[in-house]
C-alpha cells in the first residue's frame, strides 16, 4: 500500500487484524477446561507470564559480558527501535531484573519480593519499566501470551436482592477461571496439567476467590444443592483478558501524591458508596475494587518514586509482597497475583537505607541497580537515538561530536583509578573496549576497584544523558539560529561548559571537577582532530602499503635472525632497527616491549596467510595507525600549518583537496574547514613550541 492513501476500510481491517479473534467471544467453563489441558500456559501466574514474555521477543547472549540481552530492550521491534537501550551496565541490570522474575516464576522466593529499580535520575529505569508494561500489553494480545478471566451472569435469577444493574459482574480481580474450582478439585486439574508440561516452572494456584465472587459462589451453590457444574454452566462465561494500562486492567502505575494525605485505599480499594444503600456496609458486593493492587492483578504493578511514600504507607506493601494478599479496611483479605516493581532515585534510597524502622520493608525488596552507561560510544548512541526520534533541523553532526559528549558524561560517572599508570580518560577508553593487545590494563580489576570505591556502585552518580542530550539540542538550535549547518564538538563543549552551573541536579561541589573533566575531553578531541587532519594531509594508501611491506620484511628477518635484501643495492643486510623503531615509537611501544609487538604482528600475518588472505597493513588497526603517523612525520615539514588557519594563505586547490579528504571521513565542508583550522593552529603551536 506504499504511496497510496489508506481508506477507512483499510484502517478498519488493520485494526481488526491486530486484535485477538476471540476478544469479544464468551466461552463456557467446559471450553476453558479443555483449552487449559491442551495448553497449560494459559493458567500461568503473573511472574511466569512476564518471564516468558521477555524470552518471547528474543534474546542474544553476550559471551564477553556473560549477559543475556533481551531484544525487546536492545532492538524494540514494537516501536521500530525508538526505545532501544544501550550500554553493558544497563543490559546487565535488565538481565538481573529478568532473572529475579524468572526465579519468582519457579517459586524460589522473588515472587514474594518487590523488584526495586534503583538508580540516578535519567538512568533509564523508568523508561525500562514503561517499556516492560507496553510489551506485556502486546504479549497478552498474542496467542502465546493469552489469558482468560470470567464473568458472573444471570445473578438476578437466583440472588433476589441483587441490583438489576449488577446482573452481570466481571470478576472484580480478573482472576483466572481455575479459581472457580474448589481447592481440592483444582489441585486434581493442576496435577494433570503439570504431568507433561514442558516448562522451567510448574503451574500452581492456591488463591481464594475474591470476596464478591465468593459471595456469588456460596449463594449459587446453595441454590443448586452444591451442584458445581450447574453453577458454572448457568452463571459463568469465560472471556479473553488483555492487559491495558489505560483501562487499569492487569497493568497499573502508582504515583505518590500529597505525602501528608496518603490513603491506603488508593492501593487496596474502598467502599463503593453508591452500593451501600443497596447492599449494606458489610456486604462484599458494596466494595469497590479500584485500588492499584486490585487493578494490577494478573500483571504488573509499577510504583513510581516508591520510597517517597510515608513509612506507614509502605507497610501495605509488606503483605502485598510477602503474603501476596491485601487487607482493605473493614473487608476480608484479597489474594493478589502480580509482579510488583518499584522505582526510586538515590537520595530517597540513602535516606531510607539507614532507617531501622524500614528493616521489614527492605527485607522484602530485591534491589536492582540501574546505573548510567559507562561506555562512551554506547552513550553516544543514546544521543543518536534522541536525534532519530526528533524532528532535527537540517544540520550535519560532525565526527566525534556525540562521542566526546559521551566521554564527558562517562568521566563524571566512573571512579578515578588508584594506579598512577592509567589516567581517568584511559580508564574510560578501557571500559569502551579500546585496548590494544600490548596494553597492560586489567579491565575486570578496574571495574572491581570502581565498585569497591563507589558509594553504592560505579555509574550511580554523575551527569545524566538527559542533561547532555538537552545541551546537544540547545547547541543544534543555536547553530540553526546562527545559520550554521553543522554541529561540532567545539560548539557542544561551549554549551556544556556554560550550563553546568545552571543545572539543578549537579551539586555545586562537583562543578570544579566537572570543568576539569571537560578540559580532559577537549584535549582528547584535539588529538582526534589532529589525527583526522593528519589522515587528510598525509594519507597515501600506496605509500602505507609499501612501508607496511617493508616493515614486515624487516620484522620477519628480525624474528628469524635472518637478513633482508636492500631495496637500492640488492645486497643482503641486517634488519633496519632504526626503521622498525621509527614505526613502533608512533604507538609508544617501549624498547623492552618491541619483541612482543613484532611477534604479535608476525602471528597476525601468519594467521591470515593460513586463511588465504594476503597481507594488507590497512587491516591491522595498530600497524595502520603507526604507519600513518610515521608517514605524517616524514611529510609534515613540507606543510605550512600556520597557513591552514587562514584561507587566504593557502592555495585553493590544495585546500579543497584536503577538505575533500575530510569530507570522505564524514565531515561536512564547513565542518572540515573548522577542524582544519583548529588542528592546524594546534599543530603549528606544538611545532613552534618544539
From TrEMBL:
InterPro entries: Prk_AAA (IPR013153), PrkA_C (IPR010650). GO terms for molecular function: protein kinase activity. Keywords: Kinase, Transferase. The keyword Transferase applies. It holds the Pfam family PrkA. Residues 27-421 form the PrkA AAA domain. Signal peptide: none annotated. The keyword Transferase applies. This is Serine protein kinase PrkA. The lineage of its organism: Archaea, Methanobacteriati, Methanobacteriota, Stenosarchaea group, Halobacteria.
Amino acid at each position: 500500500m506504499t504511496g497510496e492513501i489508506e481508506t477507512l476500510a483499510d484502517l478498519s481491517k488493520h485494526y481488526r487484524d491486530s486484535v485477538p479473534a476471540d476478544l469479544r467471544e464468551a466461552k463456557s467453563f467446559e471450553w476453558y477446561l479443555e483449552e487449559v489441558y491442551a495448553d497449560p500456559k494459559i493458567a500461568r501466574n503473573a511472574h511466569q507470564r512476564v518471564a516468558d514474555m521477555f524470552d518471547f521477543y528474543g534474546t542474544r547472549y553476550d559471551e564477553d559480558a556473560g549477559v543475556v540481552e533481551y531484544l525487546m530492550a536492545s532492538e524494540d521491534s514494537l516501536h521500530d527501535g525508538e526505545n532501544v537501550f544501550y550500554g553493558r551496565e544497563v543490559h546487565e541490570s535488565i538481565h538481573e531484573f529478568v532473572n529475579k522474575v524468572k526465579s519468582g516464576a519457579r517459586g524460589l522466593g522473588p515472587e514474594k519480593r518487590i523488584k526495586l529499580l534503583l538508580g540516578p535520575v535519567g538512568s533509564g529505569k523508568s523508561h525500562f519499566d514503561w517499556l516492560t508494561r507496553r510489551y506485556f500489553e502486546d504479549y497478552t494480545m498474542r496467542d502465546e501470551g493469552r489469558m482468560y478471566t470470567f464473568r458472573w451472569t444471570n445473578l438476578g435469577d437466583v440472588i433476589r436482592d441483587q441490583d438489576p444493574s449488577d446482573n452481570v459482574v466481571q470478576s472484580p480481580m480478573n482472576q483466572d477461571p481455575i479459581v472457580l474450582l474448589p481447592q481440592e478439585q483444582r489441585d486434581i486439574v493442576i496435577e494433570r496439567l503439570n504431568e507433561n508440561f514442558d516448562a522451567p516452572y510448574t503451574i500452581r494456584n492456591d488463591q481464594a476467590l475474591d470476596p464478591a465472587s465468593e459471595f456469588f459462589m456460596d449463594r449459587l451453590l446453595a441454590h443448586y444443592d452444591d451442584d458445581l457444574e450447574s453453577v458454572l454452566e448457568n452463571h459463568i462465561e469465560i472471556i479473553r483478558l488483555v492487559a491495558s494500562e489505560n483501562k487499569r486492567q492487569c497493568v497499573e502505575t502508582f504515583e505518590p501524591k500529597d505525602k501528608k494525605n496518603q490513603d491506603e485505599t488508593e492501593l487496596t480499594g474502598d467502599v463503593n458508596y453508591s452500593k451501600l444503600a443497596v447492599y449494606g456496609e458489610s456486604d462484599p458486593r458494596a466494595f469497590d475494587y479500584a485500588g492499584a493492587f486490585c487493578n494490577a492483578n494478573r500483571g504488573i504493578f509499577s510504583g513510581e518514586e516508591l520510597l517517597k511514600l510515608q513509612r506507614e504507607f509502605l507497610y501495605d506493601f509488606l503483605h502485598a509482597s510477602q503474603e501476596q494478599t491485601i487487607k482493605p479496611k473493614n473487608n476480608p483479605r484479597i489474594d493478589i497475583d502480580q509482579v510488583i516493581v518499584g522505582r526510586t532515585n538515590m537520595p530517597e534510597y540513602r535516606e531510607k537505607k539507614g532507617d531501622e524502622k524500614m528493616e521489614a520493608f527492605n527485607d522484602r525488596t530485591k534491589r536492582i541497580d540501574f546505573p548510567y552507561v559507562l561506555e562512551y560510544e554506547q552513550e553516544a548512541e543514546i544521543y543518536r537515538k534522541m536525534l532519530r526520534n526528533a524532528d532535527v533541523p537540517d544540520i550535519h553532526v560532525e565526527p566525534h561530536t556525540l562521542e566526546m559528549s559521551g566521554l564527558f558524561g562517562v568521566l563524571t560517572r566512573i571512579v578515578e583509578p588508584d594506579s598512577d599508570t592509567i589516567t581517568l580518560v584511559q580508564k574510560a577508553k578501557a571500559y569502551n573496549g579500546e585496548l590494544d593487545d600490548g596494553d597492560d590494563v586489567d579491565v575486570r580489576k578496574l571495574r572491581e576497584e570502581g565498585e569497591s570505591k563507589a558509594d553504592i556502585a560505579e555509574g550511580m552518580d554523575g551527569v545524566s544523558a538527559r542533561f547532555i542530550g538537552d545541551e546537544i539540542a540547545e547547541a543544534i538550535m543555536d547553530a540553526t539560529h546562527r545559520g550554521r549547518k553543522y554541529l561540532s564538538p567545539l560548539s557542544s563543549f561551549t554549551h556544556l561548559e556554560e550550563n553546568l552551573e545552571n543545572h539543578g541536579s549537579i551539586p555545586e561541589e562537583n562543578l570544579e571537577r566537572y570543568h576539569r573533566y571537560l578540559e580532559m575531553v577537549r584535549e582528547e578531541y584535539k588529538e582526534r582532530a589532529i589525527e583526522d587532519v593528519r589522515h587528510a594531509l598525509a594519507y597515501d594508501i600506496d605509500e602505507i602499503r609499501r612501508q607496511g611491506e617493508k616493515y614486515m620484511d624487516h620484522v620477519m628477518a628480525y624474528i628469524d635472525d635472518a637478513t633482508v635484501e636492500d631495496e637500492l643495492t640488492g645486497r643482503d643486510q641486517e634488519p633496519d632497527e632504526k626503521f622498525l623503531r621509527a614505526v613502533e615509537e608512533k604507538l609508544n611501544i617501549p624498547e623492552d616491549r618491541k619483541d612482543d609487538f613484532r611477534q604479535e604482528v608476525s602471528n597476525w600475518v601468519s594467521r591470515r596467510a593460513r586463511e588465504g588472505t594476503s597481507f594488507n597493513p590497512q587491516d591491522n588497526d595498530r600497524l595502520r595507525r603507526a604507519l600513518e603517523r610515521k608517514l605524517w612525520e616524514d611529510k609534515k615539514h613540507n606543510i605550512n600549518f600556520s597557513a591552514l588557519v587562514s584561507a587566504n594563505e593557502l592555495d585553493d586547490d590544495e585546500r579543497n583537496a584536503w577538505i575533500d579528504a575530510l569530507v570522505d571521513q564524514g565531515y561536512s565542508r564547513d565542518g572540515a574547514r573548522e577542524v582544519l583550522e583548529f588542528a592546524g593552529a594546534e599543530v603549528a603551536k606544538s611545532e613552534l613550541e618544539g
